[in-house]
Amino acid sequence: MLTIKQIRENRAYTIERLAVKGVDAAEAVDRIEKLDDERKSIQARLDGNLAEQNAIAKEIGMLFKQGKKDEAEAAKARTAALKEASKELDGRLRDVEAELNAEIVKLPNFPNKDVPHGLTAADNVVVRTGGATPELPSDALPHWELARKYDIIDFELGVKLTGAGFPVYKGQGSALQRALISFFLDCNTAAGYTEIMPPLMVNEASGFGTGQLPDKEGQMYHVTAAEVPVTNIYRDVILSESDFPVKMTAYTPCFRREAGSYGKDVRGLNRLHQFDKVEIVQIAHPDRSYEALDGMIAHVESIVRKLELPYRILRLCGGDMSFTSAITYDFEVFSAAQQRWLEVSSVSNFESFQANRLKLRYRDANKRTQLCH
Fold this sequence. Notes:
Elements: H1 4-9, H2 11-20, H3 26-65, H4 69-104, E1 125-130, H5 143-149, E2 153-154, H6 155-161, E3 168-169, H7 172-190, E4 194-196, H8 204-209, H9 227-232, E5 238-240, E6 246-255, E7 274-283, H10 289-306, E8 311-315, E9 327-335, E10 340-349, H11 353-358, E11 361-363, E12 369-371
Parallel strand pairs: 4-6, 5-11
Antiparallel strand pairs: 1-8, 2-3, 6-7, 8-9, 9-10, 11-12
């Protein structure tokens, strides 16, 4: 999440940057500043009360020693009143801090300066393309027809067992799916990523840490992608600069609701409720996170090239980016049978946004803790 320092030190920048994501943040920033002012005021009063209590406590002992019992009892009564007031202030402080935090977590990450302006996928920018598009014969079949013809994916059986969007892979279909998962993991480990086999389900703290909650709550079942548990391995961790870069890869079956999806764009394997995903995650030093991002893009591109697929890389516009991302590049491959581009991968830099939620930090050369990227 954004820090109160980021929001308060440059109000105009906050509003301008979030507008690139299509968010009008002016009112939210006003509420955050007001709550932060109230928090500071309560904290100052609470600190003052505590200081006065400490001073009176010392005074009471002296008054008793001097035989000034009445004055000592009056001082004790004053202390009791201050303690009661402090208790009320402490309760109010916790409420204001919770309200302030609730407002801040609603704000998305700042988009990087290189993020194009725009609200929809039509405003995304093609960075580069590669691979040759095959010329298919006029009677070429789409993959859902091929799957039925060769009995390698059974969509109807999936509907019977679970529902639409839950295919059953059979025979060579199962072998192909398994082989692709192994291929991706092998490519990733060869590039220096440590393979992780994480739990499929995460708790609320993990979902919050990576920004899926509260943003993606309506899209998820109660299991999520590998990025969430793998990144949360480092929740509440302080790294050394020598630990960078931390590179991890994991395979998980994933689940999403995709509420409201229908029509030709969700036929066959397009937009499933259950799908398989192999992911790479890096934790990087802030000064080198964009170098890491470029390396991840090049790595994914090398895999697509090995598969000899026609592809293009898009830099997403502000309105098409995720809540947590500072910049995102999508990989799309061209389906000659469907005559359209299909997203197959996405590479993002979250900068310090997730790290702040995760309390994921490193200790710099001056022994100060800083947020990772």
